[in-house]
Amino acid sequence: MSINIAIDGPAGAGKSTVARRAAEKLGFVYVDTGAMYRAIALYLIRQGVKPEEKEVIAGRCAGADVSITYQNGEQVVSLNGENVNGLIRTDEVTRMSSAASAVPEVRARLLDLQRGLAAKNNVLMDGRDIGTCILPDAQVKIFLTASTAVRAKRRYDELAAKGDAAETLESVEAKIMKRDEDDRNREISPLREAPDAVHLDTSDMNIEEAVEAVLSICREKGCIG
Ligand code: DC
C-alpha cells in the first residue's frame, strides 16, 4: 500500500515550497493540486469565460483535460497535451482558479486524477481539501498555516525579488484575505482543518525549519524511518 501525506492550508503559507522539499527528502512524489485548478482556470480564460460565470464554468470545464507527468522530479501540468507550467502563476489565473474551484463540476474532474496518483505512489499532496475530502485515510495530515501578516509579507518579498514592485504590502494582504475568505466559505470542499490533522503554524519558522517540522510529524506518525 502506498503512503499518503496530506498537507492543506491557506494561500501563501509556504505550503508548496515546504511540501516540495519535504517530498524530495522523503523520496515521495510531490503533487501540487493547486496547479491542476490553475490549468483548468487557464483553459476557461482562453475560452473567454469570466470568474463570476459559474454555470458557464460548470458547462465548459469538461473540455479541459488535465494530466500530470514528472520530469527530473518536477511536476509538469499539461492542459490538453500542452505543458502549461509557465503560464499558470499570473494574477488572472489565480483569481479564476479560486472561482472555478468552488464549482462542483470542476472539483469532480480532478478527483480521480488526484486519488489515482495517491493510490499508485507514495505521495505528499498539497491543497485545500486533501485531508478532508480527497485522501481521508492519509497516514499523515498536516494543516500548514501562518498569520495573515506573515503570509502577506512572504508573498510581497517574493514579488519584490521578481522585480514586481507594482503592489503594496497592503494590497497583497487584501488579496490574500479575499482568497482565504472565498476558499473557506465556498459550499463544496471548503478549506477546513481535518479533525485528525496536525496544526503547524510556520509564522516564526524559516523554510528549513518548516520542512524539518513536517518530517518530524511524519516520523512521529511512524510512516517514515
Ligand atoms: O494552492 P494554489 O494557490 O495554487 O491554488 C489555487 C486555487 O485552487 C486556490 O484559490 C483554491 C483552489 N484549490 C482548491 O480549491 N483545492 C485544492 N486542493 C487546491 C487548490
Structure in words:
The protein has two domains: 1-28 and 123-219, P-loop containing nucleotide triphosphate hydrolases (Rossmann fold); 32-121, Rossmann fold (3-Layer(aba) Sandwich). 49% of the residues lie in helices and 17% in strands. The protein contains nine helices and eight strands. The protein has helices at residues 15-26, 33-46, 54-60, 91-100, 104-120, 130-134, 148-161, 169-185, 207-220; strands spanning 4-8, 29-32, 66-71, 74-79, 82-83, 123-127, 140-145, 198-201. The chain has a five-stranded parallel beta sheet with strand order 2-6-1-7-8, with helices on both faces. Strands 3-4-5 form a three-stranded antiparallel beta sheet. A hairpin with a 2-residue loop joins strand 4 (74-79) and strand 5. The mean pLDDT is 94. The structure holds 2'-deoxycytidine-5'-monophosphate. 2'-deoxycytidine-5'-monophosphate (DC) binds at residues 11, 33-34, 37-38, 97-98, 101, 127-130, 179, 183. Residues 11, 33-34, 37-38, 97-98, 101, 127-130, 179, 183 line the site of 2'-deoxycytidine-5'-monophosphate (DC).
Fold blueprint:
Layout: E1 4-8, H1 15-26, E2 29-32, H2 33-46, H3 54-60, E3 66-71, E4 74-79, E5 82-83, H4 91-100, H5 104-120, E6 123-127, H6 130-134, E7 140-145, H7 148-161, H8 169-185, E8 198-201, H9 207-220
Parallel strand pairs: 1-6, 1-7, 2-6, 7-8
Antiparallel strand pairs: 3-4, 4-5
The chain binds 2'-deoxycytidine-5'-monophosphate (DC).
